Amino acid sequence: MNIMLFHSVYGLTPAVREAAERLRAAGHEVWTPDLFEGRTFDTVEEGMEFKEQLGKEELLKRAVLASAPYSERGLVYAGLSLGASVAQTLALGDEKAKGLLLLHGTSDIAPNATAEDLPVQLHVAEPDPFETDDWLSAWYLQMGRTGADVEVYRYPGAGHVYTDPELPDYDEEAAEATWRVALGFLDSLD
Asked: How far apart are CA 90 and CA 92, in angstroms?
């Protein structure tokens, strides 16, 4: 599969590059655009501040420009936390999207969005301060209305970005389970 993997609010960190290498080792072609143009952050607060300064429009513009040269191939959009939000927005706007893999995050869904039969897989901590139960229930129902085929996996006790070994949220058992399921999902799309 051709995968466009978007980074979290921490930026294009070594953990994102490691995730891309894991996907490449499984036989996928992976691109990891740097939406922050080389900036990385040690805290969520620093990253969020930079994201706010950058603005949602500019962030999405950078993501679209990074994806456009590859979209004809049929992309699986993937992302971590903030990157999952970006991936979701792009996948719902790309009729050639082959799938959507969300790690640690979701986004608002436009009322008129359609994603007929788009395979979607979400992996999220339980509980997650950024992805509350009420939010996820509403998100799941809205995604269903788009026509997407949605699977949700919850990981009790894990922190928000639990797949990143550099962060206090890291949960090795949950991370390995996530990658095992996610790789199976990607293989099913071939």
From this structure: 5
pTM of the model: 0.97
Structure tokens at 39: 């900036």
Q: What is the mean pLDDT of residues 21-25?
A: 98
Beta bridge partners of 10: none
**Tokens 């991370």 label which residue?**
175
Comparing C-alpha atoms, which of 7, 6, 9, 5 is closest to residue 130? 9
**pLDDT higher at 110 or 139:** 139
Range of the domain at 11: 2-189
- Whichever domain contains 25, its CATH number is 3.40.50.1820
Does the pLDDT of residue 190 top 80, yes or no?
no
- The identity of residue 136, as a single letter, is L
Give the end-to-end CA distance of the chain in Å, rounded to a whole number. Answer: 6
Is the per-residue pLDDT at 84 higher than 90?
yes
Q: State yes or no: pLDDT of 111 exceeds 90.
A: no
3-state secondary structure of 79: strand
Q: Total domain count for the chain?
A: 1
Rounded to 5 degrees, what angle do the CA atoms 95, 97, 100 make? Answer: 130
